[in-house]
Amino acid sequence: MRLIDRTSHALGHTIARVRQENAIRRIAIHHSATATGTTAIFENFWRTQSSMGAPNAVGGYHEVILLNGDVEINYLPTRVSHGVAGQNGDTYNICVVGNFSQNPPGGIQLQVLLDRIRFNVGRFANVTFDRVLGHREFPGQSTSCPGPATNMNNIRNQARQPTTNMHTVTRATGGFYTAADALAGRNQRTVIQPGTYHVFSRSQGMINVTTRQGSAGSWINPNTQAEPPPPPPNMHTVTRATGGFYTAADALAGRNQRTVIQPGTYHVFNRSQGMINVTTREGRPGSWINPNATSTGQPNNTIRVGSRVRVNQNAMRWATGETIASWVRGQTYTVQQLRNNNNELLLAGVMSWIRRSDVTLV
Q: Which CATH number fits domain 3-160: 3.40.50.300, 3.40.1190.10, 3.40.80.10, 3.30.70.2970?
């Protein structure tokens, strides 16, 4: 299973209504009623539908599970998509590609659907398995979606069951946001300490382990339980963007600035005159900074409307409090608005407010 991020170009992603994540109380399950398809293909139809706001339409589903089990992520949870007529304000919509009039979903699609239900029930505070409904189960809906052959009671019961009960971690290992990251060993979020954990889900040979049964945790690779290397002892944390200089003397005098050092933790290559040479590559010289400086004083660090910024990998929550999705981190967006003395930015594409400290000017 791959998670395919379409949040920056899904139909109507910039005009979809905004809500708080804790407003979500139900998950709707749909089928596409087609033999094949992708979100991009479905969008060609949605663009013509007045019920979806045509000509300025918004798409139908937050997630679409393709025939091969890949998942297209179209809208952040804080966006309202179409899916269930008149009841989308508190609903998160998931569609499985296929026509389940005769046979229910099965194979990889069923396993992915169950995994996505478990994951979303785990992350939405006001959603339970009983609130995972087929489209036809919503009040006032005259439809057979997600297909007459789809038994939603069976889907809910299977989703409630953990894939296995427990998993024992014998040595400290990396914890990741997604199974794909755990498999590739990239974007590590935490360290999972030795112990016995509940298993929330499995995918691609990876395991989602958690200390709270029924709640999503972190993905680990059970085949690489190696002690992570200790952090280098000589580190320096930059808390606010500051000027980077060629020499310690320049850093001390605040002249001939060469670059901007963004907030983060860096290796220390050298120290002189109270200045510090910081670098992202241990053992290599970097830039000299004045640890007592709190800002660059340079216009090249100013973020304005229209600036391009990259969401930091360690960014955890939007300025409004919701969790930043893993597929947003590391991506570059255009600043659409500024507020709170320019300390919060509205990112075009995802249309969410983020703190200045959680982005890097590019």
A: 3.40.80.10
- 351 within 8 A of 13, measured Cβ to Cβ: yes
Q: Find the mean pLDDT for residues 136-149.
A: 95
Residue 77: how many other CB atoms lie within 10 Å: 21
**CA pair distance 244, 276, nearest whole angstrom:** 10
Structure tokens at 294: 């709190």
User: How confident is the prediction for the chain on average, in pLDDT?
Assistant: 86
What whole-number distance in Å separates Cα of residue 117 and Cα of residue 354? Answer: 27
List the structure tokens of 10.
């899904």
Residue 184 has pLDDT above 80, yes or no: yes
Domain locations in the chain?
A: 3-160, 166-220, 235-299, 303-361
DSSP class of 46: H
CB 59 within 8 A of CB 43: yes
Per DSSP, the chain holds a count of helices (H) and strands (E) of: 5, 23
Q: What are the structure tokens assigned to 255, written together?
A: 């002249």
